[in-house]
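Example record

The entry below shows one chain as it appears in the dataset: sequence first, then structure tokens.
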Amino acid sequence: MPSLKVLLISANTEQVNMPVLPLGLACVAEAAVRAGHNAVLLDLMGEPDPGVALKQAVTSFRPECIGVSVRNIDDQNMERCRFLLEDSRAILAACRELTAAPLIVGGAGFSIFPESALAYLGADMGIAGEGEAAFVSLLGKLEQGGDPGDIEGIVLPGRSWTPKTAFSRDLDAWPLPDTAFLRASAAKIPGAWIPVQTRRGCPLRCSYCSTPRIEGTASRKRDPEQVVEWLQEWAGAGYHNFYFVDNTFNFPLSYAKELCRRILERKLEVRWQAIIYPKQVDDELAALMAAAGCCHVSLGFESGSPPVLRQLNKRFSPDEVSDISGRFADHGIERMGFLLLGGPGETRETVEESLKFADSLRLEMLQITAGIRIYPGTPLAALAREQGVIAPDDNLLQPRYYLAEGLKGWILPRLQKWKAGRSNVIL
């Protein structure tokens, strides 16, 4: 059976909160191997000299195709924004000097800006959205010399791209990757937190969120038995810390409970974190999560002001956030809250309301962001154009932020003053 030698490169080297293992790229590598190809994954995170590691991988493996995963476009910091795509472009340029193999880009960051990012990076083609099916199809076209333009999710230079990406209905058709693809990366990180994704897609449509472009709006789930088998494999290799990267671990509620029960049935000695949408968390789920090893949850409540929450298209109230936060605290689960200030309808009064509300939760940690990164295709982008915050033809690849009138020059000094004396707050 003919096969291609495929080098898959994770370009991300950012360690903002914790080093992130390239789970998505490992899933693509697994799909390529199952399709009969020879795939090698190079993770540049933690490499003392990424350029040297890249050159060694390309010259020794001599790939016939290179895929580069772009996770981050920028650091989403309005005050001191760092444009991270320059580093990815340098990696692609280095590959171009080392080999004539076609260069394909993909990943979460790329999927938000398919056409503009492809042009900026100078790659031969890109994949927007989930990569497993599209990449395998693309490798088939490269083997046969066919035109890849008819593959869903493929973006080509100089061709108009229809905003349509392929999202697999059956996640179990693309299994979680062989842990071997990630073990070398995990071994470099003391106490590594292994990422786990049990669901893709989010139907909640928050006004600013880029997830629909990356994963779609239809929620799709893995068989929980496959998930716990994967956790057990990692635990058997000596890794016991996990981070569920699902955007809404508690949706659907029944699935979250079943996953916890399966972990308990296997008697896995694991610690894990999860992202919670602060709605529909009953005491049974909190108890099951704690019993199954959950030690920390991220609560993206974003605001303590009901009118601002409505502008962000949040489906919960401050009272629900307070109840759910208290429920986790009662079961000994640490909570990290997130405030996202400065969006539509925000005023100095609503900022103060949110700060007072955050204090009332008595969180272990709180991260505050001032100004909201504007992403294409979102309701926030449409509003920003309507209000003249951004130009009609701005592709938004270069970071643009929404900050409500009356807050510029006030909000950051106010937050710095409020932070003083609160050691649990990150700005």
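Notes for this example: The chain has a mean pLDDT of 95. Residues 44 and 106 are 16 Å apart (CA to CA).
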